[in-house]
Structure formats: structure tokens, C-alpha cells
Design goal:
The structure is a single chain. The chain is of the alpha/beta class and 240 residues long. The protein has one domain: Purple Acid Phosphatase, chain A, domain 2, CATH 3.60.21. The protein is built from seven helices and eleven strands. It is globular and about 55 Å long. 32% of the residues are buried. It is found in: Cell inner membrane. Its cofactor is Mn(2+).
Length: 240
């Protein structure tokens, strides 16, 4: 039996190769795995569950076919698609996971996160994150017409790209002390997350115990997939 973990696909109409690759793997996995976990930034932007763009509709249809196959589907908010809601989950058969979430992965307590909350040195982003996760802020945003939300999303994306270009690389990576604190709080010796676009398996020593932080990669020129089975974990990369 197998579980798959992915994140940071940033699905967008301008990146059709990523969409094709995801749909290919989704079809392969349907009915042949225990579960698929999507740990945030699945979409480059999500303006609300009423989005009627062709890409959104095609992905919803494909996810529904996957969940109907008998494989479980789980999704977590990222910093790009934090407006994914209950309607999306009903249409796709997905379960929306809180960030963080702890699961039993074939006998080992495993912590799942998107990863953005671990980047505490990026104080500007952390302030925006607190605002964007506010129910009142989201409600105000979702009350606007779809066209206005799309325009705002484009504006915020451009601002984010400009700001990130001026930041030091280490500021946008996780804070090690925060990683250790969260793992202690959640009583986990394994953490799986995305967000930083720095795929790697980091061996750790947490209070004298062997631990591991697994970082999922973003889908750009490669599809990054963590394949988990009862006796093995493989962080795999496939050319798109």
C-alpha cells in the first residue's frame, strides 16, 4: 500500500505542462494508492470556490474521479490557495486538513504542514499571513465580484514577486528553532512540508532522538513526489 505527498504545483493556465503531468499521475494513482496528500499551493492562485475558469473545472472533475476510485484525497491550504473551501471539497471528495496536521503514516506519527508558518524570519510575510487567514478578511474578499478578485489576485502576486526578489535567501527558508519547537509540541520525529521550493531530506537530532524533515519540491521543470510505503520513503523527481 502507498501514500503520495505533493505540494507547490502552482497550477495555472500559463503552465500547461504541469497540469498535464499532474493529471497523468492522478490517473495512474487512482484506485491504486491509499491516499494522496496535497500540502498547499496546489493552485498558483485560488479566488474562491465559485471560480468557473476552465482550469479550475477540469481539475475539480479529475479530483472527483480520483476520490471516486476509492483512494482518499487530502488537501491543505498554502499561501496561494488559502481560499479553498467547503464547496471545493464537496465537489472533489477531498478532506481539507488544518495546518498543522498529525497523521499515523504506516505506524509512525508524522507531522504535515505547508511550511510557510515555519519561515518566521520573514516578518513581512508573517504579518500578511495572519491577515490572510482571518475569517473576516476572507469574507470581505469573497464578497467581491469574481472579476475583482481575479484582478486583486494578480496584483498581490506581482507585489509578492517584487518583494521576494529583494529578500535574502535565508529569510525565506524555515527557521530551524521553529521547526524543532513545532515538532516537539506535536510529539513528532518526522515532518513533511513544502513551500520553500528546496526539496531535500534533512536528518535531525531532536532532543537526542533521530528525526527527519522532508521538504517537498515545487513542480517547475520536475514533478516532485514523496512516495510512502510501510517500509520505505522515497523523494522522487520526474522530468515534466
Amino acid at each position: 500500500m502507498t501514500c503520495y505527498f505533493i505540494s507547490d504545483l502552482h497550477l495555472d493556465e500559463t503552465r500547461p505542462a504541469v497540469t498535464r503531468a499532474f493529471l497523468h499521475y492522478l490517473q495512474q494513482w487512482a484506485g491504486h494508492c491509499d491516499a494522496l496528500y496535497i500540502l498547499g499551493d496546489f493552485f498558483e492562485v485560488w479566488v474562491g470556490d465559485d471560480d468557473d475558469a476552465p482550469l479550475a473545472l477540469a481539475i475539480i472533475k479529475a479530483l472527483k474521479a480520483f476520490s471516486d476510485s476509492g483512494s482518499a484525497l487530502y488537501i491543505m491550504h498554502g499561501n496561494r490557495d488559502f481560499l479553498l473551501g467547503e464547496s471545493f471539497c464537496q465537489q472533489t471528495g477531498a478532506t481539507l486538513l488544518p495546518d498543522p496536521t498529525v497523521i499515523d503514516l504506516y505506524g509512525q506519527r508524522t507531522l504535515l504542514m505547508h511550511g510557510d508558518s515555519l519561515c518566521t524570519q520573514d516578518t513581512e510575510y508573517m504579518a500578511f499571513r495572519q491577515q490572510a487567514r482571518s475569517a473576516s478578511w476572507q469574507q470581505q474578499l469573497l464578497s467581491q465580484p469574481l472579476a475583482a478578485r481575479r484582478a486583486l489576485a494578480t496584483q498581490l502576486r506581482e507585489q509578492s514577486q517584487s518583494m521576494n526578489a529583494l529578500k535574502a535567501e535565508d529569510i525565506m527558508d524555515v527557521t530551524p528553532a521553529e521547526v524543532e519547537q513545532v515538532m516537539r509540541q506535536q510529539l513528532c520525529l518526522r515532518l513533511i512540508h513544502g513551500h520553500t521550493h528546496r526539496p531535500h531530506r534533512h536528518a535531525m537530532n531532536l532532543d537526542g532522538q533521530k528525526a527527519e524533515r522532508i521538504v517537498l519540491g515545487d513542480w517547475c521543470d520536475k514533478a516532485w513526489i514523496l512516495k510512502a510505503q510501510a517500509q520505505s520513503l522515497e523523494l522522487q523527481a520526474f522530468k515534466l
